[in-house]
Amino acid sequence: MVLVAATTGLRRGELIALRWRDLEFDPGIAHITHSIWRRWEGDTKTQASRKPVPLHPILVSELKRWKETSLYRSDDDFIFPSISKNGSQPVHPDMILKRHIRPALVRLGVIKKIGWHSFRHGLSNQLRQNGVEIKTAQELLRHANSRITLDIYQRSVTQERRDAQAIAVKGLLGE
To answer: Which fold, 2-167?
Structure first.
């Protein structure tokens, strides 16, 4: 679940709403057609949210393995089902954070509180750090426009700030 969140930029409600029918393993695409919020299944947040999401081959491989071992693998089943609800509902994402992700982060010495949206921001910053064009990042994150990606999601990287500061100092003080 974390790998899907970290590499696709799906929102929490889109992530848990995924059913096996939403995936095309070949060519590696997730079709985002609905979302779940507090157990209510409905439409996605925006029209841009409904755009297909590419799946990296490593993710496709892991999802195939997950499907082979899952108790719930028919097309209508949730990819991340609640075992306690016999697969009739998706797993509760906050329980995954509470029971698995946050304790693992504490063991790693990470004290910042992480939520599902942190994965979207993290992906956005990874794209920026690696020189991905803003339009590509916007489309991967499925933002309605690039201003959202630039103004809300991406932060300048420390080295970029240092380089910009060095240019300013050089301009003010010379060599």
So the answer is: hpI Integrase; Chain A (1.10.443)
Cβ 72 vs Cβ 48: under 8 Å: no
147 vs 61 pLDDT, higher one: 61
Structure confidence at residue 166 (pLDDT): 81
- Residue 23 is inside which H or E element, if any? strand 23-24
Domain boundaries, the chain: 2-167
Residues 6, 170: Cα–Cα separation, whole Å: 39
DSSP line for 30-79: E----EEETTEEE--SSTGGGS-EE--HHHHHHHHHHHHH-S--STTSBS
Q: Which residue has the higher pLDDT, 45 or 123?
A: 123
Residue 154 tokens read as 């991406």
pLDDT score of 141 more than 70: yes
Q: Where are the beta strands (DSSP E) in 31-136?
A: 35-37, 40-42, 53-54
Strand residue runs (E) in the chain: 23-24, 29-30, 35-37, 40-42, 53-54
Average pLDDT over residues 136-150: 87
The two structure tokens encoding residue 117? 């949206």
